[in-house]
Amino acid sequence: MLINIKHLNKIYKTNSSFFKREKKFNVLNDITFSLNDNVVLSIIGESGSGKTTLAKIISALIPFDSGTVEIDNKNILSFTRQDLSNTVQMIFQNPYASFNPKLTIGNSLSQAFDHHIKYEQDIIKEKLALVGLEKNILDKYPHQFSGGQRQRIAIARALLKNPKILIADEPFASLDVISQSVIMDIFMKIKEEKKTNIIFITHDIASAMELSDKILILKDGNIVKYDINENIKKDRTDEYINELITATYLME
Fold it and tell me: Model pTM?
């Protein structure tokens, strides 16, 4: 089993003061699901549904309050930071913010390695080629690239450690139609050639149905539906799912 999550709960707390009591918000409520190897998953939901929080928990970027998370049949709490970074990599919604503007792309990519690795430059060149970029970009800075190019560089960086799981948080947000198509093709190439397991975090059910094998739909921190995308597309019994489908012009 690639991912096995049971009774996962995450609570956020507001800061208390003399005038205000501390408030608690259940961001994820009793989340339970499993995912087999070689299955592309999309986690869908409106803003505030908990989808990015779930992705960050799987990436061990934030802690959770209760439940269990297993990756490759191993409890996530037993991973070292290095082991987990070699297993799970996350691409964030705003790739520009994830790069140091004072470093060249070459330096940023080199920092992804934990220590000196033989043939480091060959690995970087290979990953850049995978996303359709040349090594001549390595001496340039993040501000010299378009949003679509920065997204491709972020994907290349995430792949440097050959992770088993690649999580992409809203990878098509703020991109023009042509750039979206290029990024979609790159993810499909990664899936086919590298056999990398991919999890998409998105509010766009149209992209999810095109890219993924299974879809997990969240609302207010709860699982509304978890099924193969064809079954979700055919199911019109849930109003929330219908709203998502209607919003992306997939009504039949």
Answer: 0.90
